[in-house]
Design brief:
Blueprint lengths: L1 H67 L2 H19 L6 E9 L8 E8 L6 H10 L1 H13 L3 E5 L12 E7 L7 E8 H8 L9 E9 L5 E5 L14 E10 L2 E10 L8 H13 L2 H89 L8 H31 L8 E3 L1 H19 L2 E6 L7 E3 L1 H17 L5 E8 L2 E2 L3 E2 L1 E8 L21 H7 L5 H11 L3 E7 L3 E9 L5 H8 L1
Parallel strand pairs: 11-13
Antiparallel strand pairs: 1-2, 1-5, 3-4, 4-5, 6-7, 6-9, 8-9, 10-12, 13-16, 14-15, 16-18, 17-18
Helix pairs in contact: 1-2, 1-6, 1-7, 6-7, 7-8, 8-12, 9-10, 10-12
Protein backbone atom coordinates (compact mmCIF):
# COMPACT_ATOMS: atom_id res chain seq x y z
CA UNK A 1 0.00 0.00 0.00
CA UNK A 2 2.83 2.37 0.85
CA UNK A 3 4.53 1.59 -2.45
CA UNK A 4 1.28 2.17 -4.30
CA UNK A 5 0.76 5.52 -2.60
CA UNK A 6 4.38 6.41 -3.24
CA UNK A 7 4.06 5.47 -6.91
CA UNK A 8 0.87 7.52 -7.34
CA UNK A 9 2.30 10.55 -5.59
CA UNK A 10 5.59 10.26 -7.50
CA UNK A 11 3.77 10.09 -10.84
CA UNK A 12 1.56 13.05 -9.95
CA UNK A 13 4.45 15.23 -8.83
CA UNK A 14 6.54 14.25 -11.88
CA UNK A 15 3.70 15.13 -14.23
CA UNK A 16 3.03 18.44 -12.54
CA UNK A 17 6.70 19.38 -12.52
CA UNK A 18 6.97 18.65 -16.24
CA UNK A 19 3.93 20.84 -17.01
CA UNK A 20 5.27 23.70 -14.88
CA UNK A 21 8.68 23.49 -16.55
CA UNK A 22 7.02 23.58 -19.95
CA UNK A 23 4.88 26.59 -18.94
CA UNK A 24 7.95 28.41 -17.60
CA UNK A 25 9.78 27.81 -20.86
CA UNK A 26 6.78 29.09 -22.80
CA UNK A 27 6.49 32.16 -20.54
CA UNK A 28 10.15 32.92 -21.27
CA UNK A 29 9.46 32.53 -25.00
CA UNK A 30 6.30 34.68 -24.73
CA UNK A 31 8.24 37.51 -23.08
CA UNK A 32 10.93 37.38 -25.78
CA UNK A 33 8.32 37.22 -28.55
CA UNK A 34 6.43 40.21 -27.21
CA UNK A 35 9.64 42.21 -26.89
CA UNK A 36 10.79 41.23 -30.39
CA UNK A 37 7.44 42.14 -32.00
CA UNK A 38 7.38 45.42 -30.10
CA UNK A 39 10.82 46.32 -31.41
CA UNK A 40 9.81 45.42 -34.96
CA UNK A 41 6.69 47.60 -34.58
CA UNK A 42 8.86 50.47 -33.29
CA UNK A 43 11.17 50.22 -36.32
CA UNK A 44 8.25 50.51 -38.75
CA UNK A 45 6.60 53.26 -36.70
CA UNK A 46 9.86 55.19 -36.69
CA UNK A 47 10.04 54.86 -40.48
CA UNK A 48 6.45 56.16 -40.77
CA UNK A 49 7.27 59.15 -38.56
CA UNK A 50 10.40 59.78 -40.63
CA UNK A 51 8.37 59.69 -43.85
CA UNK A 52 5.76 62.07 -42.42
CA UNK A 53 8.51 64.47 -41.31
CA UNK A 54 10.21 64.34 -44.72
CA UNK A 55 6.94 65.07 -46.54
CA UNK A 56 6.01 67.89 -44.13
CA UNK A 57 9.46 69.51 -44.30
CA UNK A 58 9.57 69.13 -48.09
CA UNK A 59 6.17 70.80 -48.51
CA UNK A 60 6.77 73.65 -46.05
CA UNK A 61 10.32 74.40 -47.24
CA UNK A 62 9.16 74.92 -50.85
CA UNK A 63 6.03 77.05 -50.17
CA UNK A 64 7.86 80.41 -50.23
CA UNK A 65 9.96 79.72 -53.34
CA UNK A 66 7.02 78.24 -55.20
CA UNK A 67 5.23 81.60 -55.30
CA UNK A 68 8.33 83.66 -56.18
CA UNK A 69 10.30 81.54 -58.64
CA UNK A 70 9.61 80.45 -62.23
CA UNK A 71 8.44 76.89 -62.77
CA UNK A 72 11.74 75.80 -64.35
CA UNK A 73 13.70 77.02 -61.35
CA UNK A 74 11.19 75.45 -58.95
CA UNK A 75 11.65 71.99 -60.53
CA UNK A 76 15.40 72.14 -60.00
CA UNK A 77 15.01 73.62 -56.53
CA UNK A 78 12.59 70.90 -55.45
CA UNK A 79 14.97 68.20 -56.66
CA UNK A 80 17.82 69.77 -54.67
CA UNK A 81 15.62 70.03 -51.57
CA UNK A 82 14.55 66.42 -51.91
CA UNK A 83 18.17 65.25 -52.28
CA UNK A 84 19.16 67.31 -49.24
CA UNK A 85 16.35 65.85 -47.10
CA UNK A 86 17.19 62.26 -48.08
CA UNK A 87 20.93 62.71 -47.42
CA UNK A 88 20.41 64.42 -44.07
CA UNK A 89 17.46 62.41 -42.73
CA UNK A 90 18.19 58.92 -44.11
CA UNK A 91 19.60 57.89 -40.73
CA UNK A 92 16.05 57.91 -39.36
CA UNK A 93 15.41 54.61 -41.18
CA UNK A 94 18.39 52.69 -42.46
CA UNK A 95 16.17 49.92 -43.78
CA UNK A 96 14.69 52.17 -46.47
CA UNK A 97 15.06 50.80 -50.01
CA UNK A 98 12.85 53.21 -51.89
CA UNK A 99 11.02 56.49 -51.26
CA UNK A 100 9.05 58.71 -53.63
CA UNK A 101 6.89 61.80 -53.36
CA UNK A 102 3.85 61.48 -55.62
CA UNK A 103 1.03 63.76 -56.68
CA UNK A 104 -2.51 62.95 -57.76
CA UNK A 105 -2.82 64.44 -61.21
CA UNK A 106 -6.63 64.38 -61.20
CA UNK A 107 -9.04 64.43 -58.28
CA UNK A 108 -11.65 62.53 -60.23
CA UNK A 109 -9.30 59.64 -60.90
CA UNK A 110 -7.66 58.59 -57.65
CA UNK A 111 -5.40 56.11 -59.47
CA UNK A 112 -3.73 58.64 -61.76
CA UNK A 113 -0.38 59.46 -60.10
CA UNK A 114 2.84 61.14 -61.12
CA UNK A 115 6.26 61.19 -59.47
CA UNK A 116 7.49 64.43 -57.96
CA UNK A 117 10.72 63.07 -56.48
CA UNK A 118 12.18 59.52 -56.35
CA UNK A 119 15.06 57.93 -54.45
CA UNK A 120 16.15 54.30 -54.44
CA UNK A 121 19.05 52.52 -52.75
CA UNK A 122 19.46 50.47 -55.95
CA UNK A 123 20.33 53.56 -58.01
CA UNK A 124 18.81 54.26 -61.45
CA UNK A 125 15.77 52.34 -62.67
CA UNK A 126 12.93 52.76 -65.14
CA UNK A 127 10.58 55.19 -63.40
CA UNK A 128 7.92 54.92 -66.11
CA UNK A 129 7.62 51.15 -65.62
CA UNK A 130 7.45 51.52 -61.85
CA UNK A 131 4.82 54.27 -62.08
CA UNK A 132 2.71 52.10 -64.41
CA UNK A 133 2.90 49.22 -61.91
CA UNK A 134 1.78 51.58 -59.13
CA UNK A 135 -1.14 53.01 -61.17
CA UNK A 136 -2.39 49.53 -62.18
CA UNK A 137 -2.04 47.92 -58.74
CA UNK A 138 -5.23 47.54 -56.70
CA UNK A 139 -3.10 47.23 -53.58
CA UNK A 140 -1.44 50.63 -54.10
CA UNK A 141 -4.76 52.27 -54.92
CA UNK A 142 -6.56 50.83 -51.88
CA UNK A 143 -3.72 51.71 -49.49
CA UNK A 144 -3.41 55.28 -50.83
CA UNK A 145 -7.19 55.79 -50.63
CA UNK A 146 -7.24 54.50 -47.04
CA UNK A 147 -4.38 56.85 -46.09
CA UNK A 148 -6.02 59.89 -47.67
CA UNK A 149 -9.48 59.00 -46.30
CA UNK A 150 -8.23 58.50 -42.71
CA UNK A 151 -5.65 61.31 -43.01
CA UNK A 152 -3.10 59.00 -41.43
CA UNK A 153 -0.17 56.95 -42.64
CA UNK A 154 -0.77 53.31 -43.48
CA UNK A 155 1.51 50.30 -43.98
CA UNK A 156 1.04 46.80 -45.40
CA UNK A 157 3.32 43.93 -46.40
CA UNK A 158 4.32 44.20 -50.08
CA UNK A 159 3.36 40.96 -51.85
CA UNK A 160 5.81 39.30 -54.21
CA UNK A 161 5.28 40.30 -57.85
CA UNK A 162 3.51 43.64 -57.35
CA UNK A 163 6.71 45.56 -58.15
CA UNK A 164 9.32 43.76 -60.28
CA UNK A 165 12.13 45.84 -58.77
CA UNK A 166 11.18 44.49 -55.32
CA UNK A 167 10.44 40.85 -55.95
CA UNK A 168 11.14 37.97 -53.61
CA UNK A 169 8.92 39.21 -50.73
CA UNK A 170 10.05 40.51 -47.39
CA UNK A 171 9.21 44.18 -48.02
CA UNK A 172 6.91 46.62 -46.21
CA UNK A 173 4.99 49.31 -48.14
CA UNK A 174 4.27 52.61 -46.32
CA UNK A 175 2.04 55.42 -47.61
CA UNK A 176 2.13 58.82 -45.84
CA UNK A 177 -0.08 61.84 -46.43
CA UNK A 178 -0.82 65.13 -44.65
CA UNK A 179 -4.20 66.59 -43.79
CA UNK A 180 -5.15 69.92 -45.24
CA UNK A 181 -5.55 71.65 -48.59
CA UNK A 182 -2.59 69.90 -50.23
CA UNK A 183 -3.96 66.43 -49.67
CA UNK A 184 -2.95 65.43 -53.24
CA UNK A 185 0.65 65.04 -52.10
CA UNK A 186 1.82 61.87 -50.43
CA UNK A 187 4.86 59.65 -50.16
CA UNK A 188 5.50 55.96 -50.81
CA UNK A 189 8.24 54.20 -48.86
CA UNK A 190 9.46 50.59 -49.12
CA UNK A 191 11.40 48.99 -46.28
CA UNK A 192 13.28 45.69 -46.22
CA UNK A 193 11.57 43.75 -43.43
CA UNK A 194 14.12 40.94 -43.69
CA UNK A 195 16.90 43.37 -42.77
CA UNK A 196 14.88 44.54 -39.76
CA UNK A 197 14.39 40.94 -38.65
CA UNK A 198 18.08 40.11 -39.21
CA UNK A 199 19.04 43.20 -37.21
CA UNK A 200 16.79 42.11 -34.34
CA UNK A 201 18.24 38.60 -34.46
CA UNK A 202 21.66 40.06 -33.74
CA UNK A 203 20.41 40.37 -30.17
CA UNK A 204 21.32 37.14 -28.42
CA UNK A 205 17.90 36.39 -26.95
CA UNK A 206 16.25 36.84 -30.36
CA UNK A 207 18.83 34.88 -32.36
CA UNK A 208 16.80 31.65 -32.60
CA UNK A 209 13.37 33.24 -33.09
CA UNK A 210 11.47 34.01 -36.29
CA UNK A 211 8.54 36.23 -37.29
CA UNK A 212 5.76 35.96 -39.82
CA UNK A 213 3.74 39.14 -40.60
CA UNK A 214 0.45 39.54 -42.44
CA UNK A 215 -2.31 42.11 -42.90
CA UNK A 216 -5.72 42.14 -44.54
CA UNK A 217 -6.31 44.97 -47.04
CA UNK A 218 -9.77 45.90 -48.27
CA UNK A 219 -9.75 46.71 -52.01
CA UNK A 220 -12.06 49.33 -53.61
CA UNK A 221 -14.33 46.56 -54.94
CA UNK A 222 -14.92 45.33 -51.37
CA UNK A 223 -12.70 42.27 -51.70
CA UNK A 224 -10.36 41.57 -48.80
CA UNK A 225 -6.85 40.39 -49.62
CA UNK A 226 -4.43 38.87 -47.12
CA UNK A 227 -0.90 40.21 -47.61
CA UNK A 228 2.05 38.20 -46.30
CA UNK A 229 5.43 39.81 -45.54
CA UNK A 230 7.28 36.48 -46.06
CA UNK A 231 10.29 37.59 -44.05
CA UNK A 232 11.06 34.09 -42.78
CA UNK A 233 10.12 30.53 -43.75
CA UNK A 234 8.03 28.27 -41.54
CA UNK A 235 8.49 24.51 -41.99
CA UNK A 236 4.92 23.32 -42.64
CA UNK A 237 6.04 19.69 -42.61
CA UNK A 238 7.30 19.92 -39.02
CA UNK A 239 5.23 18.89 -36.01
CA UNK A 240 3.58 21.94 -34.41
CA UNK A 241 4.18 20.35 -30.99
CA UNK A 242 7.89 21.02 -31.53
CA UNK A 243 7.34 24.79 -31.70
CA UNK A 244 6.42 27.58 -29.36
CA UNK A 245 4.05 29.98 -31.20
CA UNK A 246 2.86 33.42 -30.05
CA UNK A 247 0.32 35.58 -31.93
CA UNK A 248 0.06 39.37 -31.50
CA UNK A 249 -1.76 42.20 -33.28
CA UNK A 250 -0.78 45.83 -33.76
CA UNK A 251 -1.79 48.71 -35.99
CA UNK A 252 -0.05 50.96 -38.52
CA UNK A 253 -2.42 53.83 -39.34
CA UNK A 254 -5.64 52.25 -40.58
CA UNK A 255 -4.12 48.78 -41.15
CA UNK A 256 -4.19 46.00 -38.54
CA UNK A 257 -1.25 43.57 -38.65
CA UNK A 258 -0.98 40.05 -37.27
CA UNK A 259 2.45 38.98 -36.08
CA UNK A 260 3.30 35.33 -35.39
CA UNK A 261 6.52 34.62 -33.52
CA UNK A 262 7.84 31.08 -33.20
CA UNK A 263 10.81 29.08 -32.07
CA UNK A 264 11.57 25.43 -31.40
CA UNK A 265 11.10 24.15 -27.87
CA UNK A 266 14.70 22.88 -27.92
CA UNK A 267 15.97 26.45 -27.66
CA UNK A 268 14.22 26.96 -24.32
CA UNK A 269 15.61 24.31 -22.00
CA UNK A 270 13.14 22.58 -19.70
CA UNK A 271 14.41 22.04 -16.16
CA UNK A 272 13.82 18.36 -15.21
CA UNK A 273 15.91 18.53 -12.08
CA UNK A 274 12.86 19.02 -9.83
CA UNK A 275 11.21 15.95 -11.36
CA UNK A 276 14.26 13.84 -10.64
CA UNK A 277 14.52 15.10 -7.05
CA UNK A 278 10.84 14.41 -6.41
CA UNK A 279 11.17 10.89 -7.81
CA UNK A 280 14.32 10.16 -5.78
CA UNK A 281 12.80 11.42 -2.49
CA UNK A 282 9.54 9.55 -3.02
CA UNK A 283 11.36 6.29 -3.73
CA UNK A 284 13.76 6.64 -0.80
CA UNK A 285 11.30 7.75 1.83
CA UNK A 286 8.36 5.73 0.38
CA UNK A 287 6.10 7.65 2.69
CA UNK A 288 3.34 10.04 2.02
CA UNK A 289 4.25 12.29 4.96
CA UNK A 290 7.84 12.78 3.84
CA UNK A 291 6.66 13.32 0.24
CA UNK A 292 4.13 16.02 1.33
CA UNK A 293 6.79 17.91 3.29
CA UNK A 294 9.23 17.74 0.39
CA UNK A 295 6.52 18.68 -2.17
CA UNK A 296 5.47 21.77 -0.20
CA UNK A 297 9.03 23.02 0.13
CA UNK A 298 9.67 22.46 -3.58
CA UNK A 299 6.45 24.27 -4.48
CA UNK A 300 7.45 27.27 -2.39
CA UNK A 301 10.84 27.36 -4.10
CA UNK A 302 9.25 27.17 -7.55
CA UNK A 303 6.81 29.97 -6.80
CA UNK A 304 9.65 32.14 -5.54
CA UNK A 305 11.68 31.43 -8.69
CA UNK A 306 8.69 32.34 -10.90
CA UNK A 307 8.20 35.60 -9.01
CA UNK A 308 11.89 36.45 -9.40
CA UNK A 309 11.81 35.74 -13.13
CA UNK A 310 8.68 37.80 -13.65
CA UNK A 311 10.19 40.63 -11.63
CA UNK A 312 13.26 40.60 -13.87
CA UNK A 313 11.03 40.51 -16.97
CA UNK A 314 9.09 43.54 -15.72
CA UNK A 315 12.36 45.36 -15.07
CA UNK A 316 13.52 44.66 -18.61
CA UNK A 317 10.19 45.85 -20.00
CA UNK A 318 10.51 49.04 -17.97
CA UNK A 319 14.01 49.63 -19.35
CA UNK A 320 12.76 49.19 -22.92
CA UNK A 321 9.89 51.60 -22.23
CA UNK A 322 12.41 54.20 -21.05
CA UNK A 323 14.38 53.76 -24.28
CA UNK A 324 11.23 54.25 -26.34
CA UNK A 325 10.42 57.39 -24.37
CA UNK A 326 13.85 58.85 -25.18
CA UNK A 327 13.30 58.12 -28.88
CA UNK A 328 9.92 59.89 -28.77
CA UNK A 329 11.50 62.89 -27.04
CA UNK A 330 14.08 63.15 -29.82
CA UNK A 331 11.39 62.93 -32.51
CA UNK A 332 9.33 65.62 -30.78
CA UNK A 333 12.38 67.88 -30.66
CA UNK A 334 13.01 67.39 -34.39
CA UNK A 335 9.36 68.11 -35.14
CA UNK A 336 9.43 71.29 -33.02
CA UNK A 337 12.51 72.57 -34.86
CA UNK A 338 10.90 71.84 -38.24
CA UNK A 339 7.72 73.66 -37.22
CA UNK A 340 9.67 76.72 -36.03
CA UNK A 341 11.58 76.79 -39.31
CA UNK A 342 8.36 76.65 -41.33
CA UNK A 343 6.75 79.42 -39.25
CA UNK A 344 9.83 81.64 -39.70
CA UNK A 345 9.71 81.09 -43.47
CA UNK A 346 6.00 81.96 -43.59
CA UNK A 347 6.58 85.13 -41.56
CA UNK A 348 9.43 86.21 -43.85
CA UNK A 349 7.21 85.65 -46.88
CA UNK A 350 4.42 87.81 -45.43
CA UNK A 351 6.82 90.65 -44.59
CA UNK A 352 8.34 90.49 -48.07
CA UNK A 353 4.94 90.63 -49.79
CA UNK A 354 3.78 93.55 -47.64
CA UNK A 355 6.99 95.53 -48.28
CA UNK A 356 7.02 94.87 -52.03
CA UNK A 357 3.31 95.72 -52.39
CA UNK A 358 3.87 99.04 -50.62
CA UNK A 359 6.94 99.91 -52.71
CA UNK A 360 5.19 99.04 -55.97
CA UNK A 361 2.14 101.20 -55.26
CA UNK A 362 4.16 104.43 -55.00
CA UNK A 363 5.42 104.53 -58.63
CA UNK A 364 2.22 102.91 -59.86
CA UNK A 365 0.11 105.75 -58.45
CA UNK A 366 2.27 108.19 -60.43
CA UNK A 367 1.71 106.16 -63.61
CA UNK A 368 -2.04 106.12 -63.00
CA UNK A 369 -2.08 109.87 -62.35
CA UNK A 370 -0.17 110.78 -65.49
CA UNK A 371 -2.19 108.36 -67.63
CA UNK A 372 -5.41 109.90 -66.23
CA UNK A 373 -4.17 113.39 -67.18
CA UNK A 374 -3.30 112.20 -70.68
CA UNK A 375 -6.57 110.30 -71.03
CA UNK A 376 -8.69 113.29 -69.99
CA UNK A 377 -6.43 115.64 -72.07
CA UNK A 378 -6.20 118.03 -69.12
CA UNK A 379 -3.11 119.78 -70.51
CA UNK A 380 -4.48 119.97 -74.02
CA UNK A 381 -5.39 117.73 -76.98
CA UNK A 382 -2.95 114.92 -77.69
CA UNK A 383 -3.31 115.35 -81.42
CA UNK A 384 -3.93 111.72 -82.31
CA UNK A 385 -6.79 109.46 -81.14
CA UNK A 386 -4.36 106.54 -80.83
CA UNK A 387 -2.60 108.36 -77.99
CA UNK A 388 -5.89 108.59 -76.15
CA UNK A 389 -6.42 104.84 -76.63
CA UNK A 390 -2.89 104.19 -75.44
CA UNK A 391 -3.55 106.31 -72.35
CA UNK A 392 -6.76 104.35 -71.67
CA UNK A 393 -4.87 101.06 -72.00
CA UNK A 394 -2.12 102.28 -69.64
CA UNK A 395 -4.66 103.50 -67.09
CA UNK A 396 -6.74 100.30 -67.29
CA UNK A 397 -3.69 98.03 -66.98
CA UNK A 398 -2.31 100.11 -64.13
CA UNK A 399 -5.65 100.01 -62.30
CA UNK A 400 -5.76 96.22 -62.72
CA UNK A 401 -2.20 95.92 -61.41
CA UNK A 402 -3.00 98.22 -58.47
CA UNK A 403 -5.99 96.05 -57.58
CA UNK A 404 -3.80 92.96 -57.72
CA UNK A 405 -1.18 94.60 -55.48
CA UNK A 406 -3.89 95.65 -53.01
CA UNK A 407 -5.14 92.05 -52.92
CA UNK A 408 -1.61 90.79 -52.24
CA UNK A 409 -1.19 93.40 -49.47
CA UNK A 410 -4.51 92.34 -47.89
CA UNK A 411 -3.45 88.70 -48.15
CA UNK A 412 -0.12 89.46 -46.47
CA UNK A 413 -1.91 91.33 -43.66
CA UNK A 414 -4.33 88.45 -43.17
CA UNK A 415 -1.51 85.93 -42.96
CA UNK A 416 0.39 88.14 -40.47
CA UNK A 417 -2.86 88.71 -38.52
CA UNK A 418 -2.37 92.47 -38.90
CA UNK A 419 -5.66 93.28 -40.63
CA UNK A 420 -8.14 94.73 -38.12
CA UNK A 421 -11.92 94.76 -38.55
CA UNK A 422 -13.34 98.16 -37.56
CA UNK A 423 -16.73 98.46 -35.84
CA UNK A 424 -18.70 101.67 -36.47
CA UNK A 425 -22.02 102.77 -37.90
CA UNK A 426 -22.89 101.47 -41.36
CA UNK A 427 -26.00 102.40 -43.33
CA UNK A 428 -26.81 99.48 -45.68
CA UNK A 429 -28.62 101.86 -48.06
CA UNK A 430 -25.52 104.04 -48.42
CA UNK A 431 -23.41 100.91 -48.80
CA UNK A 432 -25.48 99.73 -51.78
CA UNK A 433 -25.45 103.22 -53.34
CA UNK A 434 -21.64 103.35 -53.15
CA UNK A 435 -21.33 99.90 -54.70
CA UNK A 436 -23.73 100.83 -57.49
CA UNK A 437 -21.76 103.99 -58.37
CA UNK A 438 -18.50 102.02 -58.56
CA UNK A 439 -19.71 99.09 -60.70
CA UNK A 440 -22.22 100.87 -62.98
CA UNK A 441 -19.63 101.41 -65.80
CA UNK A 442 -18.96 97.66 -65.94
CA UNK A 443 -22.71 96.91 -66.24
CA UNK A 444 -23.11 99.56 -68.92
CA UNK A 445 -20.19 98.12 -70.91
CA UNK A 446 -21.65 94.56 -70.90
CA UNK A 447 -25.31 95.73 -71.22
CA UNK A 448 -26.59 93.69 -68.28
CA UNK A 449 -28.95 94.81 -65.48
CA UNK A 450 -28.09 95.40 -61.83
CA UNK A 451 -30.90 94.96 -59.29
CA UNK A 452 -30.35 96.13 -55.70
CA UNK A 453 -32.81 95.07 -52.96
CA UNK A 454 -32.66 96.17 -49.31
CA UNK A 455 -35.13 94.60 -46.89
CA UNK A 456 -37.27 97.04 -44.89
CA UNK A 457 -36.91 94.74 -41.87
CA UNK A 458 -33.15 95.37 -41.69
CA UNK A 459 -32.41 98.08 -39.07
CA UNK A 460 -30.37 101.15 -39.95
CA UNK A 461 -27.71 101.89 -38.98
CA UNK A 462 -25.89 98.66 -38.06
CA UNK A 463 -22.42 98.08 -36.58
CA UNK A 464 -19.73 96.92 -39.01
CA UNK A 465 -16.73 97.80 -41.16
CA UNK A 466 -18.14 99.64 -44.18
CA UNK A 467 -14.80 99.54 -46.05
CA UNK A 468 -14.50 95.75 -45.82
CA UNK A 469 -18.21 95.18 -46.46
CA UNK A 470 -17.96 97.30 -49.61
CA UNK A 471 -14.82 95.38 -50.64
CA UNK A 472 -16.64 92.06 -50.22
CA UNK A 473 -19.73 93.13 -52.21
CA UNK A 474 -17.66 94.71 -55.02
CA UNK A 475 -15.49 91.56 -55.31
CA UNK A 476 -18.58 89.32 -55.50
CA UNK A 477 -20.36 91.58 -58.01
CA UNK A 478 -17.23 92.02 -60.16
CA UNK A 479 -16.72 88.27 -60.22
CA UNK A 480 -20.34 87.79 -61.36
CA UNK A 481 -19.89 90.42 -64.10
CA UNK A 482 -16.87 88.51 -65.49
CA UNK A 483 -18.88 85.36 -66.14
CA UNK A 484 -22.27 86.87 -67.06
CA UNK A 485 -22.74 87.88 -70.71
CA UNK A 486 -26.49 88.47 -70.62
CA UNK A 487 -29.34 88.68 -68.15
CA UNK A 488 -28.99 90.39 -64.76
CA UNK A 489 -27.19 90.41 -61.42
CA UNK A 490 -29.15 90.79 -58.17
CA UNK A 491 -27.76 92.05 -54.84
CA UNK A 492 -30.03 91.55 -51.81
CA UNK A 493 -29.51 92.35 -48.12
CA UNK A 494 -32.04 90.96 -45.64
CA UNK A 495 -32.09 89.84 -41.97
CA UNK A 496 -31.70 86.16 -41.03
CA UNK A 497 -30.65 84.62 -37.65
CA UNK A 498 -27.15 83.12 -37.52
CA UNK A 499 -25.94 80.22 -35.37
CA UNK A 500 -22.84 81.45 -33.49
CA UNK A 501 -22.68 80.13 -29.91
CA UNK A 502 -26.44 79.79 -30.14
CA UNK A 503 -29.02 81.48 -32.33
CA UNK A 504 -28.27 85.20 -32.69
CA UNK A 505 -29.47 88.03 -34.97
CA UNK A 506 -27.80 88.14 -38.37
CA UNK A 507 -28.17 89.34 -41.93
CA UNK A 508 -27.42 87.94 -45.39
CA UNK A 509 -25.76 89.59 -48.39
CA UNK A 510 -26.93 87.61 -51.43
CA UNK A 511 -25.32 88.08 -54.86
CA UNK A 512 -26.85 86.07 -57.72
CA UNK A 513 -26.25 86.12 -61.48
CA UNK A 514 -27.43 84.44 -64.68
CA UNK A 515 -23.92 83.51 -65.80
CA UNK A 516 -22.25 80.29 -66.86
CA UNK A 517 -22.41 78.67 -63.41
CA UNK A 518 -19.85 76.50 -61.59
CA UNK A 519 -19.62 72.66 -61.86
CA UNK A 520 -20.50 70.93 -58.60
CA UNK A 521 -17.14 69.16 -58.33
CA UNK A 522 -15.31 72.53 -58.59
CA UNK A 523 -17.34 74.48 -56.03
CA UNK A 524 -15.17 73.34 -53.11
CA UNK A 525 -12.16 75.09 -54.75
CA UNK A 526 -13.92 78.44 -55.16
CA UNK A 527 -12.53 80.13 -52.03
CA UNK A 528 -9.00 78.74 -52.12
CA UNK A 529 -6.07 81.04 -52.81
CA UNK A 530 -4.63 81.19 -56.34
CA UNK A 531 -7.23 78.69 -57.52
CA UNK A 532 -8.90 78.98 -60.92
CA UNK A 533 -11.94 76.90 -61.87
CA UNK A 534 -11.10 76.84 -65.58
CA UNK A 535 -7.76 77.90 -67.13
CA UNK A 536 -9.43 78.87 -70.44
CA UNK A 537 -11.89 81.19 -68.67
CA UNK A 538 -9.03 82.69 -66.65
CA UNK A 539 -7.14 83.66 -69.81
CA UNK A 540 -10.30 85.24 -71.19
CA UNK A 541 -11.50 87.16 -68.12
CA UNK A 542 -8.24 87.64 -66.15
CA UNK A 543 -7.65 87.34 -62.40
CA UNK A 544 -5.29 85.30 -60.23
CA UNK A 545 -7.77 83.72 -57.83
CA UNK A 546 -7.27 86.00 -54.81
CA UNK A 547 -10.52 88.04 -54.65
CA UNK A 548 -12.87 85.34 -53.38
CA UNK A 549 -10.19 83.89 -51.08
CA UNK A 550 -9.72 87.30 -49.43
CA UNK A 551 -13.50 87.71 -49.14
CA UNK A 552 -13.70 84.33 -47.41
CA UNK A 553 -11.01 85.24 -44.86
CA UNK A 554 -12.54 88.69 -44.20
CA UNK A 555 -15.95 87.10 -43.59
CA UNK A 556 -14.43 84.56 -41.19
CA UNK A 557 -12.73 87.40 -39.25
CA UNK A 558 -16.14 89.10 -39.00
CA UNK A 559 -17.57 85.91 -37.46
CA UNK A 560 -19.64 84.95 -40.49
CA UNK A 561 -19.85 82.29 -43.20
CA UNK A 562 -19.89 82.21 -47.00
CA UNK A 563 -21.52 79.55 -49.19
CA UNK A 564 -22.28 79.02 -52.87
CA UNK A 565 -25.16 77.52 -54.82
CA UNK A 566 -24.63 77.12 -58.54
CA UNK A 567 -25.88 75.26 -61.60
CA UNK A 568 -24.05 75.08 -64.90
CA UNK A 569 -25.53 77.31 -67.65
CA UNK A 570 -28.15 78.63 -65.18
CA UNK A 571 -26.28 80.89 -62.76
CA UNK A 572 -24.59 81.23 -59.41
CA UNK A 573 -25.73 82.58 -56.03
CA UNK A 574 -23.31 83.39 -53.21
CA UNK A 575 -24.59 83.85 -49.63
CA UNK A 576 -22.64 85.89 -47.07
CA UNK A 577 -24.11 85.36 -43.58
CA UNK A 578 -22.88 87.83 -40.91
CA UNK A 579 -23.81 88.60 -37.28
CA UNK A 580 -26.15 91.60 -36.93
CA UNK A 581 -25.50 94.24 -34.29
CA UNK A 582 -27.80 97.24 -34.33
CA UNK A 583 -26.13 100.60 -33.58
CA UNK A 584 -27.17 101.90 -30.15
CA UNK A 585 -28.31 105.45 -29.38
CA UNK A 586 -25.03 106.08 -27.55
CA UNK A 587 -23.15 105.24 -30.76
CA UNK A 588 -25.33 107.69 -32.68
CA UNK A 589 -24.60 110.46 -30.20
CA UNK A 590 -20.86 109.80 -30.44
CA UNK A 591 -20.98 109.98 -34.22
CA UNK A 592 -22.86 113.31 -34.07
CA UNK A 593 -20.27 114.78 -31.70
Amino acid sequence: MTLFVGFVVTWSVTREADIISHEEAFAQFEARAESMIDRFHSRIQQAIASSDDLLRIYQNSSDLDQELRPESEMTKLKANQFSYLINNFSGLSRYRKFIAFLNRESQENSSDFIFEQVWSSAGDFDQAVLLEQINTSDIFGALINNSLLNRASAAVPLPDGVLKEFSGGGYVLIVSSLAGERNKDFSIQILDAREILNDLKQVKRFADMDLQLSSILKLPNGEEVELDAAISDFDDSADYDDYFISVHSFQFGSQVWNAVAWSTEEIFETDHFRVQVALFVCVILTGLVYYIVWSQSERTRRVSAIIDRRTRALQKANDELAEHYEVLQDLNLDLSKARESAEAASHAKSEFLATMSHELRTPLNAILGFSQILKDQVIGPLGDERYVEYSNDIHASGSHLLGLINDILDLAKLEANQLQIENHEVYPSDLLDNVKSLVTPQFTEKNIALNLTLSDELPQPIVGDDLRLKQIIINLVSNSIKFTDQGHIDVKIYPKPIEVDGIKPGYVIEVSDTGIGIPEDKQSLLFQRFTQIDAALTRKHGGVGLGLAICHELIVKMGGTISVKSQTDVGTTIFVHLPLEEASSADNDDMMI
